[in-house]
Design brief:
It catalyses: S-ubiquitinyl-[E2 ubiquitin-conjugating enzyme]-L-cysteine + [acceptor protein]-L-lysine = [E2 ubiquitin-conjugating enzyme]-L-cysteine + N(6)-ubiquitinyl-[acceptor protein]-L-lysine. It is found in: Lysosome membrane. WD repeats lie at residues 116-158, 203-245. The model is unreliable at 1-13, 363-379, 460-561, 573-577 and 579-618 (pLDDT under 50). Among the domains are: 28-267, Methylamine Dehydrogenase, Chain H (7 Propeller), CATH 2.130.10.10; 268-334, no CATH class; 339-361 and 377-400, no CATH class; 409-456 and 628-708, no CATH class. Strands 1-28-27-26 form a four-stranded antiparallel beta sheet, with no helix packed on it. A hairpin with a 6-residue loop joins strand 18 and strand 19. It has 788 residues and is α+β, with helices and mostly antiparallel strands.
Length: 788
């Protein structure tokens, strides 16, 4: 207490002064720490370990602790801490697993004091006891925490967190024997240094790794934690169960958190990636930062308040190789630039709109809404608190409700549940989804699925041979125009038909290769062999010339006299005088081919069907076998249309079903945006299984990792309470089955739910029914279990 009072007195007589300033470092910094009198700061990193003096105008380098021709890995620091009781004592956490102490009072150039190499992996954090000079705590990637007495050459106690790795350890400012540890599995543990065999309390703080924690300097029971879930949470540890009392949502993973001195509700945070800024939050107003420091150009790796009783100076180190001193009065205040209006859509289409009271009341020309005037729907007034430094603005909230019958989202839920996205051939998936859309009265979506099947299916699978198999003996024709004579208007004269036929039949350069084109017939014109009806005549320059036509007619007059062709058809054909004959190589092939005879051609051409069809052959505009890539631009525009209309369900479903056929045509950011929007909607409707399937079928790396994080569960045996290390349900210590239902006492074969406090559990339905009528554990252990 004597030393502490001396620091406070010095601060009172010689107030800290300075300005916002920075200096360039030799290498990126991993951590920084300040000495007790706030005059020097140590910067540590993989390739830097220096001490700088804090002067009024600039940083001045005082000491370089990396000495020697070839510095060892002991100088490669992941963390550093300056002792707040002993001004010459430093400790570093090395990336090779070593814990090193440094004595600045040594006369030699090498200031290394002691070296502890008990950890097997990287040491993430070191922490001195706030009042004990010789007590040092470390947390490592190997999952162990070790307490060192600096008067001895080895650790005095080892704490096993039974987890993957320890990310942070912090001694309590008020409880002499207590320290907190945060882990990569999302848990936070409280330990008593006198009991290294078992933690005193454990609770799940975040849904991912907990990267940092910090005890409140004034309030005894407040512990702040930050994790990869982008949240900062404040826990009240004075109750029987850790109680979350505040939560701040940030925009990136939280790497460091530090309470602001002399301000009970303020804390500073920095991010592990993406965001380079430092934020100071008022936890009572968690939606917008109280102040922001935006000087760094890369990720901030270390933050520390310059003095434990001065809230106006903040020091920071970054991967951009700079060291900054921030003056709080120079910070940016986001609330000054914040938009005073708010807009949000509800799950079923309701719209909430908040704005300043002055904006709402000044709008005197607004017409009343049906059912009543809603210009002043709801006002929220808060009693002013003189301790808060907030700008008080009265807001009005308007809620516009939609007609449930006209804006129901049942189709969305049913579509998500019934759509098939994988597991069957492409054509079957499209047909099934088209049928689902049709049943839900969404014809446009149904037609889209059908068109996708036609566009991207293999033509060989789509072509169904007609009943008259003699068609194949004619060779293949590029079918361009087909129309029925009965559809022609009676007013169309022969001349106009002749001119159109000339235009369609004119060709300058024709390349007809057998096997590259085919005849497609409408399903309605297909008849079985022997069916009665009018004969169909197919005319094509590649098969028959005029002589063949005449011979065909005369040869068949005796057999089929009842079929008489309209005279008009023959006139139209004979008046075409400028048609070139078929290419010579095709004529030669026709003459030499043993498979095509005149009689076969006659039978084929005169097969009776329902109506006449005149087929004119001209130069094909496109290849009959269009590649799938030909349709990609159209499909891309179609997906963008659905997404812009708000139907991300259709966009994502088509994206998954088409797969590699379309994925390369759409940039990754757009795909990720569609996936995230659809997954968010599914989760809001509590369609968890569909959401997980969409995540699993996605090929975006940012999406597939959503269900790969925080999937490890650490459980204790319900009999001996020891952590279960093996993969089965048989405890390797007491050799008892841990999955026995505490209600029916049978082995659970299916969904198993257990209490993280007492480790007892059982069948899901049994536990739910039990906890409806009783709050105590059904196993009789006396624990107050809670099912949420």
């Amino acid at each position: 207490m004597e030393k502490m009072s001396r620091v406070t007195t010095a601060l009172g007589s010689n107030a800290i002064s300075g300005k916002t300033m920075f200096c360039h470092l030799d290498a990126p910094a991993n951590a920084i720490s300040v000495c007790r009198d706030a005059t020097q700061v140590v910067v540590a990193g993989r390739n830097i370990f220096k001490i700088y003096a804090l002067e009024e105008e600039q940083f001045v380098e005082k000491l370089n602790l990396r000495v020697g021709r070839k510095p060892s890995l002991n100088f490669s620091c992941a963390d550093v801490m300056w002792h707040q009781m002993e001004e010459n004592l430093l400790a570093t956490a090395a990336t090779n697993g070593a814990v090193v102490t440094w004595n600045l009072g040594k006369p030699s150039r090498n200031k290394q004091d002691q070296l502890f190499t008990e950890h097997k992996r990287t040491v993430n954090k070191v922490c001195f006891h706030p009042t004990e000079v010789y007590m040092l705590l470390s947390g490592s990637q190997d999952g162990f925490m070790k307490c060192f007495d600096l008067r001895k050459k080895e650790s005095v106690s080892t704490f096993s967190g039974q987890s993957e790795s320890v990310r942070d350890v912090q001694f309590s400012m008020k409880d002499y024997f207590t320290f907190a540890a945060s882990f990569e599995n999302g848990n936070v543990q409280l330990w008593d240094i006198r009991r290294p065999d078992r933690y005193e309390r454990m609770f799940t703080a975040h849904t991912g790794p907990v990267f940092c924690c910090d005890w409140h300097p004034d309030d005894r029971g407040w512990l702040a934690t930050g994790g990869r879930d982008k949240m900062v949470k404040v826990w009240d540890m004075t109750t029987n169960r850790a109680k979350e009392i505040y939560c701040v949502q940030t925009i990136a993973s939280v790497a460091r958190v530090k309470w602001r001195p002399e301000r009970k509700f303020h804390l500073a945070t920095c991010s592990m990636m993406v965001d380079h800024n430092i934020y100071v939050w008022d936890i009572r107003r968690p939606f917008i930062p109280f102040a922001t420091f935006e000087e760094h150009k890369d990720v901030t790796t270390g933050i520390v308040w310059r003095h434990q009783h001065d809230p106006h100076f903040l020091l920071s180190g970054s991967k951009d190789s700079t060291l900054y001193q921030h003056m709080f009065k120079d910070a940016t205040r986001p609330v000054d630039k914040a938009n005073p209006e708010g807009l949000c859509f509800g799950l079923l289409g309701d719209l909430a709109f908040a704005a300043k009271e002055s904006l709402i009341t000044s709008d005197a020309n607004r017409k009343p809404y049906p059912g009543g005037d809603r210009r002043y729907p709801m006002f929220f007034f808060k009693k002013p608190d003189p301790t808060e430094q907030f700008a008080h603005v009265s807001s009005a909230l308007s809620v516009f409700e939609t007609d449930l019958d006209s804006h129901r989202m049942d189709w969305f839920v049913k579509t998500a549940q019934l759509y098939l996205l994988s597991g069957k051939p492409f054509a079957e998936l499209c047909d099934h989804n088209a049928k689902v859309a049709q049943e839900l009265k969404r014809p446009q979506v149904s037609t889209t699925w059908t068109m996708l099947r036609i566009m991207f299916s293999d033509p060989a699978n789509l072509a169904t041979p007609g009943p008259n198999h003699n068609l194949g003996k004619l060779g293949t024709l590029p079918l361009m125009n087909s129309f029925s004579l009965k559809d022609l208007g009676s007013g169309m004269g022969a001349e106009s038909r002749l001119e159109r036929s000339k235009g369609e039949s004119r060709q300058d350069n024709i390349h007809l290769e057998p096997g590259n084109s085919y005849i497609s017939n409408n399903e309605e014109n297909e008849e079985t062999e022997g069916s009665e009806g009018h004969p169909e005549y197919m005319f094509g320059d590649a098969e028959l010339d005029d002589d063949d036509l005449y011979s065909m007619e005369h040869d068949n007059q005796t057999e089929e006299q009842e079929y008489t062709l309209p005279q008009e058809a023959f006139q139209l054909r004979h008046e075409i005088v400028d048609n070139p004959s078929a290419p010579e190589h095709l004529q030669q092939d026709k003459a030499d081919s043993p498979h095509v005879s005149g009689n076969e051609a006659e039978v084929t051409c005169l097969t009776p069907i329902e109506s006449f069809s005149l087929i004119s052959i001209s130069q094909p505009l496109f290849s009959p076998h269009l590649p799938a890539s030909f349709f990609c631009p159209i499909v891309r525009e179609m997906l963008s249309y659905y997404a812009e209309q708000g139907d991300v369900q259709m966009a994502v479903s088509v994206l998954i079903v088409l797969g590699d056929r379309i994925r390369k045509e759409i940039d990754d950011l757009t795909q990720e945006h569609w996936y995230m929007s659809y997954i968010d909607l599914l989760q809001r409707f509590e369609l968890w299984n569909v959401s997980n399937e969409v995540i699993k079928l996605s090929t975006c790396s940012a999406i597939t990792c959503l269900n790969q994080t925080s999937t490890t569960l650490h459980i204790n045996c319900s009999n001996c309470k020891r952590p279960m290390s093996n993969k089965g349900w048989i405890c390797d210590r007491c050799h008892q089955c841990a999955s026995v239902c505490a209600v029916c006492h049978h082995v659970v074969k299916g969904l198993f739910v257990w209490c993280q406090g007492c480790s007892h559990g059982g069948h899901l339905e049994h536990m739910m029914n039990w906890l409806k009528s009783s709050a105590h554990c059904p196993a009789g252990c006396g624990h107050l279990c809670e099912y949420t």
